[in-house]
Specification:
The protein is of the alpha/beta class and about 350 residues long. The strands form 3 sheets. Strands 3, 4, 5, 6, 7, 14 and 15 form a 7-stranded mixed β-sheet that branches. Strands 10-9-8-11-12-13 form a 6-stranded parallel β-sheet, sandwiched between helices. It has a two-stranded antiparallel ribbon with strand order 1-2. α3 crosses α4 and α3 packs across α9. The protein binds zinc ion (ZN) (2 copies).
């Protein structure tokens, strides 16, 4: 009697074997969705600077091997048990918010964004650097038809972070909003700020991005190498909000004096170095410094809808999944314009 060999359905994945290890392209069995989960056929996955956490093992408790990726766009391939709100074939994405526990004090107050046990795709479970991934339904984001997969993917981390931070910043249409850094986050921040009706001052180092910043919607370009950017902002009346996207605590510290009365330094560029500020700087003009992290899948849907309505789009470079290591190095080099996206 012939023995039945278990049917395996292989797929390709780019995994990190151990903290600090190099990317490996491996064949894996297509995973099965459990109860309350779906299987996603991944079409595109953005590479985010936060993928360093998985690559280098900088997040406590990561299990290896691990597939990074939290800017995922694709279609639902299979529904797990007890999934009723989503359909097979539906276009969905998964961003930084990969699931909440629904029981912690933040969740009990409906503040899922700040869940104490937040799950993050590519950290808590395998993410989107693979042809198929499993995600819980509370992480799913519906993608509108007019957005392609490669356009939608970066909006699920870089996009939502800038858009959600700005719309909760307290700035009103017509206010001066400065965007520090013209990179992966900043090039989206300028567009979202412009389409939100703010007067946008883009702050870059050197003259080379001036033309691009204007094209993206900045009405003023400030070269922080050639001028004192804080003084330039004061000449314009002082910024209501400075969205600090470039991961340089020194550059952020130098901008605080550019805030107007009740102005806010809104920090989304992640670094470990301290920001330097004196109490006098904060007391004078009642200034504040606030950090902001991403948002929920519902916030992501708002971000995609706003992008659809206003034409905000990420600028991307695409690489095939097999070149994940090269694509990751390109992201790290800081030379990509501006988001690197893997295609499956
Ligand atoms: Zn990210
Ligand atoms: Zn929670």
């Amino acid at each position: 009697m012939a023995t039945m060999k278990a049917a395996i359905a292989p797929m390709k994945a780019a995994q990190i074997p151990k903290p600090g290890g190099d990317f490996e392209i491996v064949e894996r069995e297509i995973p099965k969705p459990g109860a309350g989960q779906v299987l996603i056929k991944v079409q595109a996955c953005g590479i985010c600077h936060s993928d360093v956490l998985t690559k280098e093992g900088a997040w406590p408790g990561i299990q290896y091997p691990r597939v990074p990726g939290h800017e995922v766009a694709g279609t639902i391939d299979e529904l797990g048990a007890n999934v009723s709100e989503w359909k097979k074939g539906q276009r969905v994405g998964v961003g930084w918010h990969g699931g909440q526990d629904n029981t912690c004090p933040s969740c009990r107050r409906g503040d899922f964004r700040n869940c104490r046990n937040l799950k993050i795709p590519g950290i808590s479970y395998d993410g989107g650097y693979q042809q198929y991934m499993v995600a819980p339904v509370e992480a799913l984001v519906a993608i509108p038809e007019s957005l392609s997969d490669v356009e939608a993917a970066p909006l699920l981390c870089a996009g939502i972070t800038t858009y959600n931070a700005l719309r909760h910043s307290g700035a009103l249409p017509g206010d001066l909003v400065a965007v520090q850094g013209i990179g992966g986050l900043g090039h989206l921040g300028i567009q979202f700020a412009n389409k939100s009706g703010y007067k946008v001052a883009a702050i870059g180092r050197g003259p080379e991005n001036a033309g691009l910043a204007k094209k993206l919607g900045a009405s003023v370009y400030i070269d922080s190498k050639a001028t004192n950017a804080a003084e330039e902002l004061q000449k314009l009346g002082g910024a209501q909000v400075i969205l600090a996207t470039a991961p340089s605590s020194k550059a952020m510290s130098e901008l605080i004096n550019g805030l107007g009365p009740n102005g806010k330094l809104l920090v989304i560029g992640a670094t470990f170095d301290p920001i330097e500020v004196s109490p006098i700087q904060l007391i004078t003009g009642s200034r504040t410094i606030q950090g902001w992290a991403s948002g929920t899948p519902a916030d992501s849907e708002d971000t995609l809808r706003f992008a659809e309505l206003t034409g905000v789009r990420p600028m991307i470079e695409t690489y095939p999944l097999e070149k994940a290591g090269e694509a990751y190095a390109r992201m790290l080099s800081g030379k990509a314009e501006f988001r690197v996206v893997l295609t499956m």
